[in-house]
Design brief:
Elements: E1 7-15, E2 18-22, E3 28-33, E4 45-52, E5 55-61, E6 67-71, E7 76-81, E8 85-91, H1 98-110, E9 114-120, H2 125-141, E10 145-147, H3 158-161, E11 165-170, H4 176-183, H5 187-197, E12 208-214, E13 217-221, H6 235-240, H7 266-272, H8 278-289
């Protein structure tokens, strides 16, 4: 067999330094990265070199349209590339983290991604009332919020996925797996196929999967997150990620206002006048002081 020396494909699954690359003809080719570290991520378009009939090596990444990642003082954790939308899944129960939700929204804003907050498990009526109140500042700020019960009816979500490459983010316990299985009934079969192709065994969880909903709509699922560091962002970028702050930024008495303790801070005055939610301002102050 004559091997094709190189080609272009898209990473549709990843585990450690192993990747599954989908080629233009639909072939799924297991590939390795060179070296001990790798910065490739699900959704990347990559150039590969075939090393055998059933394996290749990734040579380089093609230019990315977007890259969603989190960071701390020591490293970056890549989540997905070439996405157009982030869908953050929260639930009526267990309680979800305001801070984690906000950090995801900030990261999405920095990458110019469309955002959708999905409130799952809305079949739990009393818990829904409380969760809806918790999300009211986000709705007032203009964020799109979709309420549903993934185990009962996933159809309300489908229009939001059309013509988008979306990444699904959520804490453990929010029902993200139920949502994926309802949305993509063949998802478990695809996962098994990927696991088999990577020879990683049925107990291996890949970092992320890319599923094709149709020819123009794609969904990347990744493991649950419990933290979302923003060490790579400065205070101004974090402030810009609070979209309701926009009318007030740059109008403080001091040009380098940290919006913490300075006098004549327009953000604090707006909060006192009821134009900015107090909890949202406090979140900004906490996150900008320690963006880990």
């Amino acid at each position: 067999m004559t091997l094709s020396p190189c080609g272009i494909g898209q990473i549709v699954a990843a585990y450690s330094r192993q990747y599954l690359v989908e080629l233009p003809d639909g072939e799924l080719l297991p590939c390795l990265s060179r070296g001990k570290t790798s910065e490739f991520v699900c959704g990347d378009n990559v150039e590969i070199k075939r090393t055998s009939s059933n394996q290749g090596v990734i040579e380089c990444t093609l230019p990315r349209l977007s890259l969603l990642f989190r960071s701390d003082a020591y490293r970056r954790k890549y989540i997905a590339a070439n996405i157009t939308q982030i869908i953050i899944v929260v639930a009526t129960e267990p309680p979800f983290s305001d801070e984690l939700l906000t950090r995801c929204l900030i990261a999405a804003h920095e990458q110019k991604l469309a955002t959708l907050i999905v409130l799952n498990k809305c079949d739990l009526q009393s818990a829904t009332i409380q969760a809806r109140a918790q999300l009211s500042p986000y709705q007032n700020a203009g964020y799109r919020i979709l309420e549903l019960s993934a185990k009962d009816n996933i159809e309300p979500l489908r229009p939001y996925l059309e013509n988008q490459t979306s990444v699904l983010i959520g804490q453990s316990g929010m029902g993200k797996s139920t949502l994926i299985n309802a949305l993509l009934p063949d998802a478990q079969a695809v996962t098994r196929e990927i696991s088999s192709a990577l020879n990683s065994g049925k107990h291996t969880t890949t970092r992320s999967h890319l599923y094709h909903i149709n020819a123009h709509s794609h969904l990347i699922d990744c493991p649950g997150v419990q933290a979302f560091g923003l060490h790579h962002l400065n205070a101004d970028t974090i402030a810009a990620g609070f979209v309701e702050f926009s009318p007030y930024l740059g109008k403080c008495r001091f040009s380098n206002c940290s919006h913490q303790h300075e006098p004549d801070c327009t953000l604090k005055m707006a909060q006192q006048q009821g134009k900015i939610d107090a909890r949202r301002l406090k979140l900004f102050q906490e996150i900008s002081q320690g963006a880990f």
